[in-house]
Amino acid sequence: MRVSAVVISHGHAQELEASLPPLAPQVDELLVIANIPGSVPAVLPPGTRVLENERPLSFAANANLGAARTGHELVLIVNPDAIAEPDAVAILRSFMEE
Prior knowledge:
By secondary structure, this protein is an alpha/beta fold.
């Protein structure tokens, strides 16, 4: 099973600098939703896609939007301040496969 991750940023550029690098190599697709201007750091992990909203949306609306814009069987909705442990996504993927 392939895994997409959606991270919604409401002005969390600084938090994303710490949270995206450990998450990116664990997922097959990484989408960051910039809910407000300036909510994404200048440097992102390779392959990260960014979707910039024209106007702010609720967390739930962004989660639905992100899930609709990804292409894999599993979609993680990740808070911008969550730091993924090195095997976190593998454990979740294994659980879902079982």
